[in-house]
Specification:
The strands form 2 sheets. The protein has an 8-stranded parallel barrel, surrounded by 8 helices. It has a single domain, classed as TIM Barrel (Alpha-Beta Barrel), CATH 3.20.20. Helix 2 runs parallel beside helix 3. Helix 2 links the parallel strand 3 and strand 4. The longest helix is centred in the last third of the chain and has 19 residues. By secondary structure, it is an alpha/beta fold.
Length: 344
């Protein structure tokens, strides 16, 4: 008989800044969310690097994670992710080596290939953009891994802290590229299906079919991301989810504002084509009361065969955000190692 096992849940937080709020308050709310997730038994609390975005306070991701680590005790903390083209591998090794020294056996490092911003801001990050820095991504990943390993004879550059700490590295992706690289390097893979649903299933199929076992990972390991808004009723959850829809609509129209409060009648704001674009962007979203979300989550696990699920929630009110992760924690989903027909 196929084995059954529980699928761990984690939280991805962008430290959303609400209208009328400062980044200071947003980061404090991130800590409250991390503490609640830890209390409820979530496995990881990851934060993401974005720049030049008024509504996101996690740009200095390693600094924000240090704050989260100091206010928690057991939950794993990590980057989901660090946009490696913005940085030298040595700097990231030192930053996450410092985190791993402060919070032993609790730190993950997820790496992305995109800059996480626009071209002008990427140039302001002081990286050399005369060559396509994304082309150097595989070499940069390998260089970073080497800094976390034990030193080799004659090595002249060392990450201190960082050397010998073997900080777990994940590759993040929203397309086929990182799936193939993660498979080649034998690394765990996390897919950003919370905003890039189109390539989810093809990427997972490619990763699993091309995976090469490594010393760190004998078989493929996949985490998939999704939006999640859980409330006492389906109607209330849909109402709270309107903040996420407004955020996506603004993003698609080139607006980078702060998180807006939920609203009714938002469908009247956009055309049928824009409505379809928002729905495509938010295709993988668990929205409703716990029973509704349980069924949605079970379907998601069945088609992806995910080893872990990480959720993000653009919920305007902190109390409602905390309540959402509390209600989501009631959903326990088992994964079968059997491959369902037509799943991929």
């Amino acid at each position: 008989m196929p084995k059954q096992r529980s699928v761990p849940l984690s939280v991805l937080d962008l430290s959303f800044v609400r209208e009328g709020e400062s980044p200071r308050e947003a980061l404090r709310e991130s800590l409250a969310l991390a503490q609640k997730a830890e209390e409820l038994g979530y496995k990881r609390f990851w934060m993401a690097e974005h720049h030049n975005m008024e509504g996101i306070a996690s740009a200095a991701t390693a600094v924000a994670l240090s704050y989260i680590g100091a206010g928690t005790r057991t939950i794993r903390i990590g980057a989901g992710g660090i946009m490696l083209p913005n940085h030298s591998p040595l700097v990231i090794a030192e930053q996450f080596g410092t985190l791993a020294s402060l919070y032993p056996d609790r730190v993950d490092l997820g790496l992305g290939r995109a800059p996480g911003t626009d071209v002008r801001t990427a140039r302001a990050l002081r990286r050399n953009l005369t060559n396509d820095s994304a082309d150097s991504f595989p070499a940069d990943v390998q260089e970073l891994r080497a800094y976390f390993a034990e030193p080799t004879p004659g090595q002249s550059v060392h990450a201190v802290p960082g050397e010998g700490l073997e900080v777990p590295i994940w590759l993040l992706g929203s397309s086929l590229y990182s799936a193939q690289l993660a498979a080649f390097l034998g690394l765990p893979f996390a897919f950003a299906s919370h905003f890039a649903p189109e390539y989810l299933l093809p990427s997972l199929e490619l990763y699993r079919s091309k995976f090469r076992p490594s010393a760190k990972l004998p078989k493929p390991h996949v985490m998939v991301a999704a939006n999640a808004v859980v409330a006492e009723s389906d109607e209330k959850a849909e109402y709270l989810f309107s903040s996420a829809k407004l955020g996506v609509w603004n993003l698609l129209n080139g607006k980078r504002g702060k998180m807006q409060p939920p609203a009714t009648g938002i469908d009247a704001l956009w055309s049928e084509e824009e409505h379809a674009s928002v729905d495509r962007f938010l295709r993988y979203a668990f929205v409703g009361r716990p029973a509704t979300v349980q069924a949605q989550l079970e379907h998601f696990i069945r088609i992806t065969r995910a080893d872990e699920v990480i959720v993000t929630a653009r919920i305007h009110n902190l109390a409602e955000r905390l309540r959402s992760v509390e209600l989501l924690a009631e959903c326990r989903v088992m994964r079968s190692d059997a491959v369902p027909a037509g799943a991929l």
